[in-house]
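Intended use. Records like the one below are meant for learning the mapping from a protein sequence to its folded structure. Do not use them to infer anything beyond what is encoded.
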Amino acid sequence: MVKRITYLLVLSFIILTDSYGQDPTFSQFYANKLYLSPSFAGATEEYRLAMNYRNQWPAVPGVFHTYSISFDKALASFNSGIGVLATYDVAGSGNLSSTNIGLLYSYDFNINKNWHIRPGVNFKFYYLGLDIYKLVFNSQMSGSGISPSVTPPPFENLADVDFTTSVLVYNERIWGGLTLDHLLSPKTSFYGDESTIPVKINMFGGMQIIKQTRLRRKNQEILSIAMNFQKQAKFFQSDLGLYYYTNPLVFGLWYRGIPLVTSQAGDALIGLVGIKTNYLQIGYSYDFTVSNLISSTSGAHEISLVYEFNNLSMGQQRKRIRAIPCPEF
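Structure written out for the chain above:
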């Protein structure tokens, strides 16, 4: 009980002081492409529906869950793509939550015969909420237990708008991109202070090291190396790993951290297993903590589901968007 109360008090202090918000992170960032970069909007055969769930630190009292759902469509006749993305993140026993709903657009340019460049934008609505009645303050604790609060919340939940822009460059084997998020600096203070979400910089990329297809067995094998670097205010994170795909299975191994920069061995080792068919992709990953929190968090679980489909009838032809070689998880 004492441990739970301590967590509640720490969370209350963080929420009710002048602090800067940070974004949730997905380990399977290529399974949530629109969250990674709006340049991926419509980079599919025709339609794509993606759902993602992350359970961060299940051993810590309170919840740290992130949900995401997106839908996008290729506009091949216009070399474009459109999409919608909604994310919901809830943290702690006070249900401190952030909700984002955005509309995305991207356009694909041919640089030359082999290379493409794809800029994208995301206009989104931002909502920040807190259930203060679930928090426990010093005035509520007594020798007989915890008394319920009768004081109404001294603030209202917060709404704002935000904007993201990105660019993606790729050919048949290599890809790389840059995303700038929170360019409108949405407010995060329930009391009207000048607390905002800092701009997040996301650099990602990779290449297919091995790609071979066995025609008789109709079996494709791909080994890819990929990276994802994020910086937000004074915080930064780096992911580096490998994907191996052999029809229909996908395996991945990632390292999260920046060696020699911090005193810790890193943040996590991430293992991934998935199934990829022509239409459906299902993935599960687990973050094994290797930092100083190794004994207190129980890592993180993440599940992704992506369904791609089209409405083309047999024999119908249409212009197709060039495939981007990055992995699906």
